[in-house]
Amino acid sequence: MTAQTTGITADTDAVLAGVRAEVRRRRPGGVGEGSARELLAPLGLPFVSAEEVDSADEAVAAARRSGFPVVLKAVSDAVLHKSDAGLVELDLGTAEAVREAHGRLVGRIAATGAADARVVVQPMVGAGTDLILGWVRDPAFGPVFVAGLGGVTVELFRDVARRIAPVTAAEAHGLLRSLTCWPLLAGFRGAPAVDTAEFCALVARVSALALAVPELAELDLNPVRISADGRCTVLDARAVIEQSAEVASRRSGFDLGALVRPGCVAVVGASRDASRPGGRVLAALREHGFAGHLHPVNPAGGEIAGLPAVSSLAELGHVPDLVCVALRAEASVEAVGECVRSGVPAVIVYASGFGEAGAAGKALDTRLLAEVAGSGTIVCGPNTIGVVSSHHRMAATFSQAVHGLPLRVSGTCLVAQSGAVAGSLVSRELADGYGIGDWVTVGNQLQLDVADYLEYYAGLETTRSVAVFLEGVPDGRRFRRALAAARERGVPVAVFKTGVTEAGSRAVSSHSGALAGSGEAYRAVLAQEGAVQVAEMTNLLEIAWTLGHTPRPAGRRVAVVTTSGGAGSATADLVEGAALVPAVFGERTRSRLAEVLPGFANVDNPLDVTAEGAFAEGVVRRVVELVAADDGVDLVCVVLTSITGPDAVRVARQIAEAADGGGKPVLVSWLVARSLAEDGMSVLAERGLRVFTEPARMVAAAAALASCPASTHPRSACA
Questions:
Q1: Domains parsed from the chain with CATH numbers
Q2: Cα 243 off chain centre by
Q3: Which of 121, 134, 227, 511 has its CA 20 to 30 A from that of 373?
């Protein structure tokens, strides 16, 4: 293969350094095709040939040298979208056509006022498929590489795939295969397949440029025409130059043991008023049975909530593992300073009014960071509702979400950037009979960020999956490393990402000062690192729990068993819509099902057990057993309708018994009001089966299970 297809072969670093030096000499701003060619010339990219001309006569002469037909363009750094401005003349087959096109371009150049515009003559390139490749530099993750269907309609069809650089040639091939337009390259309707090796090598070469030249904020090579024999020709290019802002990676490797598993907790700002944060934190710790030493700290001393209070940390006579600071922002900074001087290993700062509150709050951020700088003290928050561990019976939170609900041990952890959302989701999970092992709301991530908690929780033996409610991360590289660490440890991660639109990003910024980044960048990162992106907020914990507590299916073939034909067909539609495969029962399975079900029942997938079958003793259990045992079934989705009261308990037990012996995942959606079948739903929860109120949410969880990479298979098939 030539250098054109394999990349730079001679002194790659020197070539890239030369390109960077040239870019640095340029003024920031947009760069059109002509300047982009000059900047990228050392890379030897396969640009279409171009000859600059100053007159119509020169244009005709250049066309004759190139060979008709030709293209005339006006290239300018001031006009990046030439087609929109009428600065491209295509398929000019005669000298007269070239003269007339040159005259039109000169007039249009004058109308645009682009003083730097130059007219160039290029040969018409033969037929092929037009692709785009390039990148946009995300503030959190760096270059987000894009490859896909190109040309003037690229923004209309949006058939592109994204990956965070670097991108290898093999990975580029995977990007192409994921496109809707892939059949055009693979051989559509009898056409020969296109050899994409040269294009994939080009992607790898340009990817190296993205990493080596951070001053190039954006680059589009569009279109890159790939011909039937695989040859690539770059027909147009543009770039954006910005001053690079290298972001230093945040400190990592914090030991969160004292924060998550403390033996001794002090509550600074403990209050006799149970409605105040200090009163709520103390009450939550007591309500949920924290077994360690608990010390209220209040200047008045005395007794609070039946516990002896001290007037200061110094009065304790020993150093607590965790100090919960329930004071206003200004006073919280002073309290953290006292903790640092006392050698306290972990502090939670609940107060808002820090960086999310404007200039005055940012000044408090600076002071708080200065207090902990160089110390052994870690800080959760500020602007957090706290940390909870069901394994440790520790609820260091002022959230009302856990009041009156038992902490249930679970292998699921939650890391959230919204305290209100986290509390709401957790309350639903606990009320439905499922649990959260450990959870934290990260607040403003002043010191500890999402990545720190994710990596720590994934390393605990009690963790089977992690759910993340994500607004943004301050350090994209750290976040990627944390996701990778979870994947390597066999802990699946489910993420609900907010702030993926322009309006959503503005809301994130005003809410917690988070760096939202772009939705596309986060989608690419999550896909690359094997995390599951969840579409519905209230489905986050359901999917995370399912990933951690349910056997992983061997494939994507789904059987639907239901007590309603209508619900079954609706669920079957959802299965196909989620890129799952409706299972086809074998003849032996069909025959045995016919023996169990009433004679009028249809034994195809979706399978309606009928009302008669649903209320007959043992029929539901036997049907689920037979379906799960079929070699053509990987996963069973059960949809229950109006089965209530004692019947609900009976059917739930049958499903649980069938699932226990099958070894294949069984998910359940129960459509009736919870109050009418709560005892049955509780039976399933206690037996380790997930119950969904909506079939679409069940199917989303099934798709997540089927898509979970092998390396992120739960540590144990079932909890």
A1: 3-123 (3.30.1490.20), 130-226 (3.30.470.20), 268-547 (3.40.50.261), 551-712 (3.40.50.261)
A2: 28
A3: 511
Structure tokens at 81: 């979208």
DSSP letter for each residue of 641-689: -S--HHHHHHHHHHHHHHHHHH-S-EEEEE-S-HHHHHHHHHHHHHTT-
- CA atoms within a 13 Å half-sphere pointing along the CA-CB vector of 394: 28
Spell out the residues 6+ positions from residue 708 whose beta carbon is closer than 8 angstroms to its own. 492, 530, 532, 547, 552
Secondary-structure percent of the chain, ordered helix, strand, coil, rounded to 5: 40, 20, 40
Instruction: Read off the pTM.
Output: 0.88
User: Which one, of 358, 377, 480, 472, lies nearest residue 416 by Cα?
Assistant: 472
Distance (Å, rounded) from C-alpha 323 to C-alpha 325? Answer: 6
Contacts 24+ apart (CB under 8 A), 60-64: 60/95, 60/98, 60/99, 62/121, 63/92, 63/95, 63/98, 63/121, 64/95
Euclidean distance between CA atoms 379 and 561, whole angstroms: 50
Token digits of residue 279: 């009163």
CB-CB contact of 713 with 555 (8 Å): no
Give the closest residue to 716 by CA, choosing from 473, 463, 443, 499: 463
DSSP 218: E
Residues sharing a CB contact under 8 Å with residue 111, sequence separation 6 or more, in sequence order: none
Q: What is the mean pLDDT of residues 16-28?
A: 90
User: In terms of C-beta density within 10 A (0-12 exposed, 13-18 middle, 19 or more buried), how is residue 482 classed?
Assistant: buried
Residue 7 clears pLDDT 90, i.e. is over it:
no
Query: At residue 485, what is the residue type?
Result: A
CA dist list (Å): 491 to 261, 439, 457, 484, 552: 20, 16, 10, 10, 13
Q: Collapse the DSSP code of 161 into the 3-class scheme (helix H, G, I; strand E, B; otherwise coil) and give the result.
A: strand
378 pairs with which residues across the strands? Answer: 346
**What's the pLDDT tens digit per position in 643-699?**
999 999 999 999 999 998 778 999 999 999 999 999 999 999 999 999 999 999 999
Q: Any idea of the CA torsion for 651, 655, 658, 659, to the nearest 10 degrees? A: -170
Give the separation between CA 463 and CA 714, rounded to whole angstroms: 9
